[in-house]
What does this fold into?
Amino acid sequence: MYIENLTLRGFRNYSEVSLTFEPAVNVIIGSNAQGKTNIMEAIYVLAMGKSHRTHRDKEMIGWESSFAHVKGNIHRRTGPTVLDVIFTPKGKTVKVNELEQQKLSQYIGTLNVVMFAPEDLNLVKGGPAERRRFIDMEIGQASPVYLHDLASYNRVLKQRNQFLKDWQGSRRDPGALLDVLNEQLAAQAAAVVKRRFEFIQMLQGWAEEIHRGISRGKEQLEINYVPSADVSYGMDLSTLKEAYEQAFQTKRDQEMRRGTTLSGPHREDLLLYVNGRNVQTYGSQGQQRTTALSLKLAEIELIRDQIGEYPVLLLDDVLSELDNHRQSHLLNTIQGKVQTFVTTTSVDGIQHETLSKASIFEVSDGQLVEVK
Amino acid sequence: MHYPTPISRLIDGFMKLPGIGPKTASRLAFHVLDMNEEDVLSFAKSLADAKRELTYCSHCHYITDTDPCRICNDTTRDAAVVCIVQESKDVMAMEKMQEYSGLYHVLHGAISPMDGIGPEDVKIPELLKRLQNDEIQEVIIATNPTIEGEATAMYISRMVKPTGIKVTRIAHGLPVGGDLEYADEVTLSKAIEGRREL
It folds into this structure.
C-alpha cells in the first residue's frame, strides 16, 4: 500500500499544505525545528488515529487554528481509500471514505505503518517494559482478542496485588479467595503467553534472516522469550495455566511477604543474542542498532504475512545514524516494495540508487516544497 | 445562573440520581413546577414510601415489602434450584424472561479486593448457611461476565462443590437473533470457547 496524497490543515506548524508522494522513497529534508517529524507524526496519525509522541490530541492543533485536519488518499491492493482525522478542542473524528467511524478500532487497519525512530534503540537497550510494550502492540494490531485478554490479565493482576497487599505480613490463612485469584490470573496469563510465544516464533524467523543480511552473514541473531514460569512454545492453554498456578504456589510465601505478584506475563522479557552473546549487555552501539533495525524490518514482513501487502515505513532521523553498509542494506530491502518516508538534515554522502531516484521535499518553517 | 433556593435544591436532588447531569436535572425540575400539585405529592410520597417500606428478604436478599418475599413464599416455584445474581435488578431481568421457576439469591455486589469487597462483604456466608438448611440441589451462578463477576462465581463454586450440590454457570456468547458478522471479535472468541456438541 502507499499514500498518494497527504493534506494537512492546522496541523502543528502547517497551516495548509498538500503533497503528492511517490510509491517508492520520499525524502524530507530540512534543518532542525522546521517540521520534519510533524510530517511523520501526521502520517502516523492517519494510520493509528493518534500520535506517537503525545497523548494529548489538542497539542496537534496549530497555534492559529481551531482544528487540525489530516487527510490522505491511500492506495491499497484492493483500491483507493480516503482517510480523514480531525481534531478539535472538543474531540476527534475519524472517517473512512467520508464515512464517520464511531469506534477507533474500526478505523485502524486501513493504513498500516511501521515507524523506526531513534527512540527505538530502547527496544534493545531499554528495560523489559519497552520490549513487552513492543510485543503487545505488535500482536494487538492484528488481534483485538489479544488486547482483551491482556486487559483482563491486568485487571485480575490489580485485584490480586491488592489482595496480597491487604494480607501482607498476616499469618492467617488467606483462604480460598487466593486460590480463586490464582486460577483466574493463571488462565489469563496462559492466553497472553501462548500468543506471545507464537509471535516470537514468527518474529524470530524473519529477524534472523534480515539480521544476517545486514551483518553480511557475520552475525546470528537469536530471540528468546524469558517466561516467569516453567512454560515453553507449543504448550496448550491448560498446560500453560497449570504451570502458572504452580509458579504462584511455589512463590506463595514470598508473594505474601512482599504483597505483590512475582510471576506472570508482566514480569517477562525478551533476551536478544548476537552470536550467542547477550546484545543488551555486551553488544556494541552498532550491534544494538542493527538488532533494533532487524526487529523493525521483521515487523514489516510480519504485517505483510497478515494483510497480504507491505505497510508504509517511516524512518525518522535514523538513516544518518547507520553506517554505509547498513544504510544500503536497508535501502535494498525496501527497494521497490515498501513506500518509505525518510527525514534527514541532508542527503549528502548517502549514495544509493534508491535515494537518487527518490522524491525530495524541502521543509522550511512550515512550508514544504518538492525539489525533485 | 442564579435560581431561587427551592428550585436549585430540587435540581441538586435530581443530580444525585444516576445518569442525570445538570441539564437534564434542571429540565426535570422545571417540569415538576408545571405538574399539578396532586401528582407532585403522590410522586414525593412514592419516593419516601419506596425507601421506608421496602426491605430485603431474609432468605434471598431481594427487595421486598413482605418478608419472606413473594418469590420465596410462592409454593409453585421449584425450591430445589437457586439462581445467584449480583443485584436486585438482575432478579427483575430474570423474572421478565418468565422461563425460570426456581428461587434466587442476591449477593449485593461482587468480590473485588480493589474496592475492599471480600467474600464476607457480599451475601456469600448467608448463601452457604441457606444451602445447609434448605433442600437445594442446584445453584445457577448468574453473576456478570466481568473479572469480578467471574471471581465471585469461581469462589462460590469452590465453596459449594464439596457439599455435593450441583453448580452451574450461565453461558455467554452471541446474542439471539444477531448476525454473526456484526459480533465483535472478543464475543465471537468467547462463543467459540463455549461451543457445545449437537
User: Anything to note?
Assistant: Chain A has twelve helices and 15 strands.
